[in-house]
Amino acid sequence: MSAFQRKPPAWFWIVSVVLFLWAAAGVFALYAHATLSGEGLAQMSAYDRESYLKLPVWFVWVFALATLPALIGAAALLMRSAIARPLYFFSLVGVVVQFGWVFGATDLIAVKGASATVPFPVAIFALGVFAWWFAGMAKVRGWLR
Q1: How far apart are CA 61 and CA 124, in angstroms?
Q2: Among residues 141, 104, 96, which one has the least CA distance to residue 121?
Q3: Of all helices (H) and strands (E), which one includes residue 75?
Q4: Which terminus of the chain has fewer Cβ atoms in its 10 Å neighbourhood, N or C?
Q5: Per-residue b/e over 118-143, b at no fewer than 16 CB within 10 Å?
Q6: Could you give the CA distance from residue 102 to residue 109 in angstroms, rounded to a whole number?
Q7: 8 Å CB contact between 51 and 113
Q8: Contact by Cβ (8 Å): 83, 92
């Protein structure tokens, strides 16, 4: 029996679908960020509006690097393709650069506090690490080709 003939258990599909939905939400957040209208800006606090307007041009590209490979990686999991693991690695690089810049180059934590700003990015990173690990585990078990 070849490695790819091993059928993954039902929980593999459940986890893969959840990772796909999570990644789709990330891509939607990227879209909302990249297409924010003047009306949307007007609804922000003064600090958030100023921060958004000061973002470097490359920030949206790093945001895309954090989200798009995760979505493609999740789709690869659903297609049982081993390309998922390197895609999740690239996504993690994007997450680290994106939030590294946000926390290292801005005063966000000083203004809003760590308890309001750190947990969600940590959860995003942790889920990215989990997805990368999960794809590797699935490959080792012969569920991906």
Answers
A1: 17
A2: 96
A3: helix 59-78
A4: N
A5: eeebeebeebbeebbebbbebbeebb
A6: 9
A7: no
A8: no
Six-digit token pair at 142? 């012969």
Question: What type of residue sits at position 63?
Answer: F
Residue with tokens 């994007």: 94
Q: How far apart are the first and last CA of the chain?
A: 14
The pTM (predicted TM-score) of the whole model is 0.93
Provide the Cα torsion 132, 138, 139, 140; round to 10°: 110
Q: How far is CA 48 from CA 44, 45, 102, 138, in A?
A: 6, 5, 12, 41
Distance (Å, whole) CA 77 – CA 21: 12
3-state secondary structure of 100: helix
Q: What is the sign of the dihedral through the CA atoms of 37, 39, 44 and 50?
A: positive
d(CA 66, CA 76): 16
CA-nearest of 93, 85, 86 to 67 is: 93
